[in-house]
Amino acid sequence: MARVVVDVMLKPEILDPQGQAVQRALPRLGFEGISDVRQGKRFELEVDGPVDEAALARIHDLAESFLANTVIEDFTVKVEEVAEAAK
Amino acid sequence: MSRTPLDTVEHAAATPDVELPWAELGLKKDEYERVVEILGRRPTGAELAMYSVMWSEHCSYKSSKVHLRQFGEKAPQSDALLVGIGENAGVVDVGQGYAVTFKVESHNHPSYVEPYQGAATGVGGIVRDIIAMGARPVAVVDPLRFGAADHPDTKRVLPGVVAGIGGYGNCLGLPNIGGEVVFDACYQGNPLVNAGAIGVMRHEDIHLAKASGAGNKVILYGARTGGDGIGGASILASETFDDAKPSKRPAVQVGDPFQEKLLIECTLEAFKEKLVVGIQDLGAAGLSCATSELASNGSGGMRVTLDDVPLRDSTLSPEEILMSESQERMCAVVEPEKVDRFLEICEKWDVIATVIGEVTDGDRLEIFWHGGKIVDVDPRTVAHDGPVYERPYARPSWQDELQADDANKLPRPTTSDELKQQVLKLVSSPNQASKKWITSQYDHFVQGNTVLAQPEDSGMIRIDEKTGLGVAIATDGNGRYAKLDPYTGAQLALSEAYRNVATTGAKPLAVSDCLNFGSPEDPAVMWQFAEAIRGLADACQQLGTPVTGGNVSLYNQTGEVAIHPTPVVAVLGVIDDVARRTPVAFQEEGQLLYLLGDTREEFGGSAWSQVVHDHLGGLPPKVDLERERLLAEILISASRDGMIDSAHDLSDGGLIQAVVESALLGGKGARLIVPDGLDAFTFLFSESAGRAVVAVPRSEEVRFNDMCGARGLPVTRIGVVDGDTVELQGEFELTLDELRTAHEGTVPGLFA
Amino acid sequence: MTARIGVVTFPGSLDDRDTQRAIRLAGAEPVALWHKDRDLHQVDAVVLPGGFSYGDYLRAGAISRFSPVMETVIEQAKAGLPVLGICNGFQILTEAHLLPGGMLGNDHLHFICRDQKLRVENTSSAWTVDYSAGQEIHIPLKNMDGRYVADEYTLDKLEAEGRVAFRYVDFNPNGSLRDIAGITNEAGNVVGLMPHPEHAVEPLIGSGRTDGLPFFTSILKKLVNA
């Protein structure tokens, strides 16, 4: 068992009003020195069986065709091992 | 509670000395003793969960019941009433074979804790009440009250509540057509988030919450059950928050409007195929409420296997499953041969549906878990025989002093310029300012039948495309008036909603109410409550509009300080042809403006006294119900016969507020003349009840005057629709641009 | 014989019945289509209605785009079947790549409902022939995710090819690039827009105007003359 994480972010050139709203609130809350905030989505996929290249390729396709809309969004795929003890 | 061994009925009988956490679950000692007496043994943990949640203030109305009876005892004869108080919502005959169900409910405390989800699930709950009657929901309305507009916490609560109502209601496809937004420091920490809904059905489609016919199956469908709002009904909704005990704030339920939309479509399809014997939505008290109410309203008993309830969290105990307030769930009773078809429809809509039990011959509600019987009760004792309190009440000692502090004696403007400045101050004050920034976050077009929506006097929906038959709804309440005199305040709330419905051309038929008050344990609050109900019941009787249902919300207070008594009244009306509706906006220049009704020096509780003097004292405006009835008849006749082109009721803010709104909405100004016998100040700002301003085309002038004269309604010509200013002759002139900036800038300035 | 126009109901579609009514008022025959059914039942055109299909979860229109009915709609749209996407339907069309660009949350972060002024810029598409070029109309708008975005190249191309069908006038309600309210595909058979023409087809109801009716009379004319 492993967890694969797909992070989806708006492309850098696309306006992110949610991120901007968060950033505007920061000084009010006393957090200084943060020059930009962008908000994205995180998908955690619990994968049965080994996360080999073939499995990752399938997840990559899934992310590209469904989890992200590549017209407006970029994505990354990474494997996150899950400690057996936690299961 | 120990889970081993399972606390079955048998185990409870064998271990009478086991201590149960009845106090933590919100039961009083004598209430717990009453449970033991009913059962003849100690309750099991599951039974205790059910009793505690069903006997909470929120579910049992134990403090309010003795007063609420007046709505039944004083109910006027009404041919329109098809289903009255006691069901999920009342049902009214609106003609042509159509029936309309409507109700207003509160979701106050949850909306303070988590504004977005609290408000969203409030919409979800009231809509399920409407579906449970067999109706297709056609519109929602949201009367809202917040703390001071410029208080920092209002900036947290209001945008969240508005986004929650929009986020849920818009996603369900229900036009939001009315409601109110009121600011007052008394609601700081206790915002009032009331939600109303209307549904339409044919007479033969009315469904009731009852389980009849031994062998019929009980089907739970909709969302899976999770740990949402466990104990919410008994703890969250009934007691004041106590900062010392954060554990008393359980997780607020989270709504899924998409699931609810599927639930609506799937339920209506099942109704259409006549698959449902009885139905109940799962709201406060979840399965405890649904099973005990269905069983106690039917002819038999019920057996439920709790193991069959689909769970979102497999670690839930049976007690938690019974108390869970997970949203978007319903319970239907279906004949065995129709179960397959029912499940098929659910599958079509991707709704999870499970048979969890059946109706039995006996009169017991029995619930099983892992093979053991954990509940064996007479369902009536859970659902209907809760405690009834005769709480002490007494007119508070400060009431006389408050009433003696006469607002009519406040300093009035002495120059034309001062008068003008006060007009600007009034129309730009948060309560009187345009709420467009809020209402534009609600969809009011969806379903394609919206004839009128806010800021019109009432929302109006067409229900038959061919004939144009429509219904109108208005909600009103004025806590300031009710604080000065709760009896009169409640009657003024009814009068205003009644008048608002008539102003749009619809005939008022029936009433639903949401009664928001402080702690019933305070005799002063209890007096306000008793007086308000007495006033409302008396007025409903006189106006011939029965109360069909509603909701009571108590404990709206922080420490010793209660909110203003705030009865919110919804009036439902019917109009034969929506093409005859009357809008607020001025339609054409040159039309004559008439003031209907009598204007007196009445400033107690007025918007003027609040905005200009930050004052609350004296007596509220006088109520004359016969005058309200006459005014309504005139407005309806004038609308039907095409004698008026626009109309606006006069209420808070008085005449000038109404004229400014009609002018801005129509984009046409007005020239006003102070009538004989009145001074300019009283003319503009008085809040005398039983009044409206109408615009009459010149061709109808004689006919309109003759009608008012023949029926004895005072009518005064006060000016003409004209130009791009609002002018009071000899006093001042304000351009529409100036007024628009003042009126529309306030709310976005505060919250955008 | 009149034209048969299909209206797809997805789970969470809201304006499907309203769209059927608008089609009826225009004189065509509305046909209800179901998202799980690949069969388009020989309709002459398809409307993807407004709403919150699948709750707008993931992205507006992203899940519906993969429904069985859309497989056929995509295939036939490429072959010339007239398709109109309104609001959520527009979002589905961009997710399905039948129209370029994408839809994001309104720049002010609120749902917005208003009677919106638009300028008609393309009167040759299947859904706009009954308008005149440059005509200004009022159509109700109500959405959360109405911000049209595309890269500069795509935007320039849309402009150059006259494929910006509608533009917001006086007020841009959601931050859409170049005030774009609606676009067409190259062939002009597929049109998507955020405002709701089906809510402007009867006097008294909704906005009280009938500025949206030409959408439905346009397609009727096109189909009956074809």
TrEMBL record, chain A:
Coiled coil location: none
Domain of life: Bacteria
GO CC aspect terms: cytoplasm
Pfam families: PurS (PF02700)
GO terms under biological process: 'de novo' IMP biosynthetic process
Localization per record: Cytoplasm
InterPro entries xrefs: PurS, PurS-like_sf
The entry's keywords: ATP-binding, Cytoplasm, Ligase, Nucleotide-binding, Purine biosynthesis
Transport in keyword set: no
Reaction(s) this enzyme catalyzes, per UniProt: N(2)-formyl-N(1)-(5-phospho-beta-D-ribosyl)glycinamide + L-glutamine + ATP + H2O = 2-formamido-N(1)-(5-O-phospho-beta-D-ribosyl)acetamidine + L-glutamate + ADP + phosphate + H(+)
EC number per UniProt: 6.3.5.3
Record field: transmembrane: none
Membership in a protein family: Belongs to the PurS family.
Role, per record: Part of the phosphoribosylformylglycinamidine synthase complex involved in the purines biosynthetic pathway. Catalyzes the ATP-dependent conversion of formylglycinamide ribonucleotide (FGAR) and glutamine to yield formylglycinamidine ribonucleotide (FGAM) and glutamate. The FGAM synthase complex is composed of three subunits. PurQ produces an ammonia molecule by converting glutamine to glutamate. PurL transfers the ammonia molecule to FGAR to form FGAM in an ATP-dependent manner.
Protein name: Phosphoribosylformylglycinamidine synthase subunit PurS
The species this protein was found in: Streptomyces regalis
